[in-house]
Specification:
Blueprint (H helix, E strand, L loop, with lengths): L2 H14 L2 H12 L4 E2 H8 L3 H13 L3 E6 L2 E6 L2 H14 L1
Helix pairs in contact: 1-4, 3-4
């Protein structure tokens, strides 16, 4: 494994290493459609800016995609198969 791959894997694990990010990832992955960030922040009872910051970290790691819809931002899973595998792996650890 080269340095670039190690860096990329570290970014993914960093993005997954936060309880709030895992909650966001779970909410988005269980949705049948992309979700507005405002809807996620309401469900988690968190400020929009905090949720957006967490989503930005996961976007940078390649886990989520952000779409601009008018003046709103909508979030979707970037690689659903990978997220399902990660969630299943995590369940086996508990």
């Amino acid at each position: 494994m080269d340095e670039e791959n190690i860096t990329r894997i570290a970014e993914i694990f960093n993005a997954l290493g936060n309880k709030n990010r895992l909650k966001i990832l779970k909410i988005v992955s269980e949705s049948q459609r992309p979700l507005h960030i405002k809807a996620i922040s309401r469900e988690l009872k968190m400020r929009y800016t905090a949720v957006y910051r967490h989503i930005s970290i996961m976007k940078y790691a390649g886990l989520l995609t952000i779409y601009e819809v008018g003046r709103s931002r909508v979030v979707a899973i970037a690689k659903p198969e990978m997220i399902n595998e990660l969630m299943n792996f995590a369940k086996k650890l508990t």
